[in-house]
Automatic annotation (TrEMBL):
The lineage of its organism: Bacteria, Bacillati, Actinomycetota, Actinomycetes, Micrococcales. It comes from Flexivirga caeni. Pfam families: ABC_tran. InterPro entries: AAA+_ATPase, ABC_carbohydrate_import_ATPase, ABC_transporter-like_ATP-bd, P-loop_NTPase. Keywords: ATP-binding, Nucleotide-binding. One of its GO terms (molecular function) is ATP hydrolysis activity. SMART domains: AAA. Residues 7-244 form the ABC transporter domain. Coiled coil: none annotated. This is Sugar ABC transporter ATP-binding protein.
């Protein structure tokens, strides 16, 4: 695996009118790694992710993908690069089944009819490759699935489409203990397949369990990027709540520490 990030933002600023939300933010994601993006309410996580996903255009700074500078000003630009955001609402259609949801908008045709067989095989293969055992049938309607199963379908959809960077917005927020464990295992397997996973979460246990690297935003600035192995929960919470950690001996806000892949 490469030490070079697949996605690299440097010195990113974003304002809404007079409100300066992101201040010189550096952020990177690596193929095969889970990068957690954490921060208190209003720290700027959603804004940063929307800049990555093309919903917002950065005001200044650089956006590099696979080492090449990009101008991303539309979600289609990000999608063309292979960046997929799985939002909390999951954007699944209740009245369609798992296969139909995974292929929604990108259906396969055989002649002029839908190639149901090939789509079903591809969906099943993707779920198998991610060791998903929680779905009874890929022909189940989404309306009959649990929250964890729905999250699984949304993540598997990103895997099916070979997304290179998958951003997961609070994937376990609405889940119980067992389903949370299953979704975190899925997150890990997605990264193990070579995807760069960005995990937004307020749940420190989830973050510490699954992340390789943790980037902490504090009041729109990057407080630190740390390797999971170098920190404990207290230190991450301190970074989230104060923007610095005395225990880590980190420099003040804006410093990247130990962020090698
Ligand atoms: N469109 C906007 N116009 C003005 N201010 C905005 C806009 N979007 C976000 N902000 C402000 O930017 C700051 C960061 O918001 P953002 O939603 O990115 O934080 P967050 O870390 O995702 O928070 P949360 O964890 O609560 O979702 C907040 O102070 C918010 O009010």
């Amino acid at each position: 695996m490469s030490d070079q990030p697949i996605l690299q933002l440097r010195g990113v600023n974003k304002s809404f009118g007079a409100v300066h939300v992101l201040h010189d933010v550096d952020f990177a994601a690596y193929a095969g790694k889970v990068t957690a993006l954490v921060g208190d309410n209003g720290a700027g996580k959603s804004t940063l992710v929307k800049c990555i996903g093309g919903t917002y255009t950065i005001d200044s700074g650089s956006y590099e993908f696979e080492g090449t500078s990009q101008h991303v000003s539309d979600p289609r630009d990000a999608a063309a690069l292979g960046v997929e955001i799985v939002y909390q609402d999951l954007a699944l259609c209740e009245n369609l089944d798992v296969v139909q949801n995974m292929f929604l908008g990108r259906e396969r045709l055989r002649g002029i009819v839908l190639d149901e067989e090939s789509m079903e095989i591809a969906a099943s293969d993707t779920l198998k490759s991610l060791s998903v055992r929680t779905l009874k049938s890929v022909r189940q309607r989404v309306s009959s699935l649990s929250g964890g199963q729905r999250q699984t379908v949304a993540i598997a959809k990103a895997a099916l489409w070979k997304s290179k960077v998958v951003i997961l917005d609070e994937p376990t927020a609405a889940l119980g203990v067992a389903q949370t464990a299953q979704v975190l295992e899925l997150v890990r397997r997605l990264a193990d397949q070579g995807t760069a996973v960005i995990l937004i979460s307020h749940n420190m246990l989830d973050v510490l369990q699954v992340a390789d690297t943790i980037s902490v935003l504090y009041l729109g600035q990057l407080a630190a990027t740390v390797n999971r192995a170098d920190v404990n929960q207290t230190q991450v919470v301190e970074l989230i709540t104060t923007g610095r950690s005395g225990n880590l001996g980190l420099q003040p806000i804006g410093t990247i520490t130990g962020a090698s892949a």
